[in-house]
């Protein structure tokens, strides 16, 4: 059979360079009007009984090339379970091998979360008792910016994900959070809903998600560098979400992401904002300590350096919201690799564990919601 490489689908990204026997040379396509790239997602057909080696030839020019060592690609034959393959990085080339038992398989940087699944999530959750849906606005490609709101309490909680579209683990986390919050048998979730109003934006960047981008929207703009001055021309996603936040106020905010290099889950805070107070900062640190005590899926040892006093970047959402509202704001980072403190040899960091972490995050929030 003829070997076929295809990425012409929702969140697909790859370009075929050459096929030489059982070796397939590929390159990742940069985000539109941007130099960012690292996300890949493609299908291979006509390979039954063959063992193929795939080489991503431009891996060394990727946005976070330092993240390739120790990384392993995901493979699926049913687009439901995404297992780890092998992985090797040398001389600017990332390669992996797969033995095909069937005719077709899919490969991706992380388990994809398609826009069709996003629409299914919105439909399922908008139909739950006590959940309100609102379209905040539209993207440059005309896609809806969806907001789900639930809860009756006075504390204003904002959870938003996938500013960087290639970080698909963020929307898996969101799916887990929404499932917990709408579970009528979950007493902790019900208690949280009684004390807080929760606003969830499951996907901040639907254009980039569909286009197969790593980090930017349809205009090649990194949304998490727009929060100081968003515009409808460059960043309507941030413009509309920030306006909705201005209307409600924000007591607690979590921006959900993925990190290419660090093999662990961690939080980044708002150190360095002009109006930093130790009281506000301690609430953030307390949240992290409680989360680490609650689940082996979170740790405190690895993470990003803290900004020096007065040096926080106001264009990033966590800093902007902490400064703008005095909120306890934070960025949650999950790995493209495995979670080394609690590894899984078959699946690495997976959609199921994204959901489990979301449950732990909400349980932790419920335990300190009165302190915000």
From TrEMBL:
GO biological process: proteolysis
InterPro entries, alphabetized: Cytosolic_carboxypeptidase, Pepdidase_M14_N, Peptidase_M14
Active site per the UniProt annotation: 333
Pfam families, per the entry: Pepdidase_M14_N, Peptidase_M14
GO molecular function, one term: metallocarboxypeptidase activity
CDD domains: M14_PaCCP-like (cd06234)
Residues covered by the Peptidase M14 domain: 111-372
Matching SUPFAM superfamilies: Zn-dependent exopeptidases
Cofactors: Zn(2+)
Secretion signal span: none
Highest taxon, organism lineage: Bacteria
Homology family: Belongs to the peptidase M14 family.
Protein name: Peptidase M14 domain-containing protein
